[in-house]
Every structure is written in C-alpha cells, then in structure tokens.
Specification:
The complex is a heterodimer. Chain A is of the alpha+beta class. Chain A has nine helices and eleven strands. Chain B has helices spanning 21-28, 32-40, 58-73, 78-104; strands at residues 7-9, 11-12, 18-19, 56-57. Classes of the chains: A alpha+beta, B mainly alpha. At the A-B interface, helix 2, strand 3, strand 4 and strand 5 of A face strand 1, strand 2, helix 3 and helix 4 of B.
Chain lengths: 318, 109
C-alpha cells in the first residue's frame, strides 16, 4: 500500500498548529465538497482530505501518525511495522460511517477494527453494531435520443467494500439500468439498496445516478424543451417555405413564414422530451448564404444587388 | 460464462415523485427535527401545511440530501446551508444560460 502524507494533503507543515490544521481543512473541504466543487476528482480529494483531518485534528492520532517518521514520501510503498495492523495497540475512536471509507493505509495504522464485525473483538469491547452502507452517486451519461425513447445502459462502478479483515478493497460492479423516457439534465434516479454494502449485517445504501446529457450535433436540451438550429436558404427565408425539420420522433414538415430572419424561433409544440406535459422543440432559423464560387453565381448575386437595393445598416446611419 | 444481469429500474426523482417526512428523513439520514428546521428555514417547501401532511417532490429530495451533507461535512448552520443551496441553484442556472448563449453564438456545438 502507498504511504499517505496527511500534512501534504492538507497543505500544512509538520509543525502546524491545531488551528492551522483546522483552517486548512475547512478551506479544502469547501473547495472539494462534491456538492459544491466542479473539480473532476472532487469526491476522491474530499475523502482524502477528510481522512487526513481525521488523523491530524486529534493530537493522539496525530502523534501516532508522526511516530512513523518524517522520511516517508507520499505514494511511497508502505509496510506497517511488525505487530500487524493497528500496531499501536491503542484504541482509537472514529465515526464508523466516516471511517468505513478511509484508506487501507489508514487502517494499517489505526486498525481495521473500527469497521464492522471485526471491530467488536478489538479493545475488549463486546459491543457489536451494524450500519447501513453509504449512499453513492454516479454520473449517468445519456444521449438525448435515449432520454426521448428510454433505454437500458450498462454501468461499471468501482465500489469500495470491506473485506473480512476490515480492509477497504475496490470491487468492480456491473449494473444494467433502465433509463426512463423523458429524463432531463441533472435529474437523479434512485436505485434503492444498490449503494455501498452495509456493515455488520446492516442494509446496503442507495445508488443515485445523476443524468448528464452527452453533447449532440443537432439538439440541445433545456429541461424538457429541445433546441435545434435550422439552416435555411435566403429565398426560403424571404419567400417562406414548407420544409422538413428533424425532431427526436422523426422529421416533420414545418412552415417558414415569409420574411424570416436569422435567429427567429419557431415552436413545434409537444415535440420535445416526453412527459406530462411533453416539452416543445424550438427551431432557431439560421440563414445560410450559398457561396459565389463560379462566374455564373457571382453574376446572379450582382443582378440581385442591382435589382433589389437594400441597406441592412440603415438604422446605424451608415 | 457470463452471469446474466437483471435490469434495474430506479425511481426518477422528478416533480411527480413524492415522499413523506419519514421517508425523506431516512433518505437523508437526519432526525425529524432537522427536517422540520429545513422547512422552517424555507430550505424545503413541502406540499401540505401540517407536518404529518408534508409531501416532498423529487427535486426537493435532491435539495434535502445536498443540504444534509453540507450541514454534516462543512458544519454549516441551517441558514448557511439554505444560502449555499440557493447559491448552488443560481450557479446551475447561470451555467445553463452561459451554455445556451455560447450555443447561440456558435461557440459550443
């Protein structure tokens, strides 16, 4: 297992005061709290910060950690001194829910006994307890098409579990999950009992999947409404037209009113994501000018300019 | 040989999903008094006037879970947790608007 430099994790020196440790922890906890932070590794960092704080905030645990010496480097291969795990043979107290997710390095120093049935035998305590497993949250990448039609998705999750000796081990779990029709960005799906396993016979926690839409080349979702930019020709915009428009349910015909400009927004009622009520699709017109890349095309544009003088900058006084 | 995997169907926490006090309390792992404080602070807005009638929608469940984690992990008081939840909502809305505007300007496809 790897040595963890708790001082480095909190960004404090080895002779930091308890107040300095508290301040550093508070600042980092706010920065990396998974509900607040946008950092991609926020959850892992937050766990690490909590583990470091759990040890350094308590003078007894800090002293036990300091006894390992100052020559260790973060990430260095670490072998606990003889005497096995929890080699200090001293009873340390932890919030079992917090401690259940600390690292193997942590339990090698302070004992794995804090977590689960094995703990009942440590320190002469006969009290056994059971604890519900932690809830877990994972992102569920979903295409807009899957949100429209509904789908099933196979997920692979690394779930920290405790082995028989109270060591934290990551187990890979494969889940097949139904994505209900009409899910929207940021919504959560709760899978009861699919979170981290319970301890000492306690029930498992829940798994919360947070829907995250993949970028789409045509559509963009806002709640249940769908937006699509629709390229049209200058003559379709000027004269009006009936054209085919892509929607999630398949192409539909839509009338472009004469005299339309770029940016005009047209609504296709009920063509967004399904629900009660269903969302709408908003088509945003985008006039695309054909290139004047031949002599003939150039002369056509010139003829248009001569026969239909038009100053789009008239309002600007130029 | 691969083991067949059952397809799991979860509960979508949308506006049509509702839970009562006891279930929300369990989902957030908080005592009933803390839940009542969240309502008193305006952090949660249940349907129903009496505590036994309270009903919380899916988005309220999401908010209550965030608030309970902030209370526990950052040792905030209830007013601080309510303020953080409001600001998080506002940040989410602003990010959505930035993405929408960037899309309109052709900066993001």
């Amino acid at each position: 297992m790897e040595y963890k430099d708790y001082y480095k994790i909190l960004g404090v020196s080895r002779d930091a005061t308890q107040d300095e440790i508290k301040r550093a922890y508070r600042k980092l906890a706010r920065k990396y709290h998974p509900d607040v932070s946008k950092e991609p590794d926020a959850e892992a960092r937050f766990k690490e910060i909590n583990e470091a704080n759990e040890v350094l905030k308590d003078p007894e645990k800090r002293a036990a950690y300091d006894q390992l010496g100052a020559n260790w480097k973060a990430g260095q291969e670490f072998h606990p001194p003889p005497g096995g795990e929890g080699f200090y043979r001293q009873e340390f107290h932890f919030d079992p829910e917090e401690a259940a997710q600390f690292s193997d390095f942590f339990s090698s120093i302070f004992g794995g006994g804090f977590a689960g049935a094995a703990g009942a035998e440590r320190g002469g305590r006969s009290r056994s307890y059971s604890m519900r497993g932690r809830d877990q949250t994972a992102k569920l990448l979903v295409s807009i098409e899957d949100a429209y039609h509904g789908a099933t998705r196979t997920l692979h999750l690394d779930v920290p579990e405790l082995d028989d000796h109270g060591h934290v081990v990551n187990k890979r779990r494969t889940l097949k999950v139904r994505i209900p029709k009409g899910v929207t960005q940021g919504q959560q799906i709760r899978l009861a009992g699919q979170g981290a396993p319970g301890i000492g016979g306690g029930p498992a926690g829940d798994l919360y999947l947070e829907v995250d839409f993949q970028p789409h080349p045509i559509y963009r979702a806002e709640g249940k409404d769908i937006y699509a930019a629709l390229p049209i020709t200058p003559w379709e915009a000027a004269l009006g037209a009936s054209i085919s428009v892509p929607t999630l349910g398949g192409p539909v015909k839509m009338k472009i009113p004469p005299g339309s400009q770029s940016g005009r927004k047209l609504r296709l009622k009920g063509r967004g994501l399904p629900g009660k009520p269903a969302g709408d699709e908003y088509v945003v017109l985008e006039i695309v000018v054909p290139p004047a890349d031949t002599e003939e095309k150039k002369s056509l544009w010139k003829a248009l300019a001569e026969k239909m003088p038009f100053n789009p900058r008239a309002k600007m006084g130029v | 040989m691969t083991k067949a995997i059952d397809i799991l169907s979860g509960v979508l926490l949308d506006e049509t999903t509702h839970v009562g006090v006891e279930e929300l309390r369990t989902l957030c792992n908080i005592p009933e008094e803390v839940l009542a404080e969240m309502v008193a602070e305006g952090l949660l807005q249940p349907l129903g006037t009496q505590r036994e009638e309270w009903s919380f929608s899916g988005p309220q469940i999401h908010r209550a879970r965030i608030a309970s984690r902030l209370l526990r992990d950052l040792e905030l008081n209830m007013a601080g947790a309510a303020l953080a939840c409001d600001l998080l909502d506002e940040i989410r809305e602003l990010r959505r608007r930035v993405a929408s505007l960037e899309h309109q300007l052709g900066l993001r496809r």
